[in-house]
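Standup notes, protein team

Yesterday: finished cleaning the Anaerocolumna chitinilytica set.
Today: Stage V sporulation protein AE structure.
Blockers: none.

Input for Stage V sporulation protein AE:
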Amino acid sequence: MDYLKAFLIGGAICFIVQIFMDNTKLMPGRIMVILVCLGAVLGAVGLYEPFAKWAGAGATVPLSGFGNSLFQGIKDGIDKDGFLGIFKGGLTATSAGIAGALIFSYIASLIFEPKMKE
């Protein structure tokens, strides 16, 4: 049941984003920034954590979950390191995901033939 809930919640988030992409003039990069900021803001007001516990991977995998992770890392970094935690906390909290994305992207570029768009 957890898998089904994660699939439905993650699919609903993607569905809403697709509606924005189809019906507005916002570029995909701007929509991605909006999702990250929305996750950070919802985390700051305390709404994202209960939602993520309920929805599981359906809420933590999309970019809004990344924004929440950034906020949580910064909050923990400030508690631990003070002012320096503002700069250090978010990177520390999300470093595994960022490193994984870079490593797997590099491996994919070795396996497949990347081409420039014409």
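Follow-up from PR in the comments: Helices lie at 2-23, 28-44, 48-55, 57-60, 63-81, 85-111.
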